[in-house]
Design a protein that fits this description.
The protein is mostly beta strands and 40 residues long. The chain is built from no helices and 3 strands.
Amino acid sequence: MDAQDRLWFGESRGDRIGMFDTRSNTFREWKLKHPLVGTL
């Protein structure tokens, strides 16, 4: 959770970053340009 009450999370199988805004009850996600799977 950040200071603006948003929950951030990684979607490793979907190569995306997600965010849930608890104040507005909305969900957003962004596709990563460079997948991280297999690089760690």
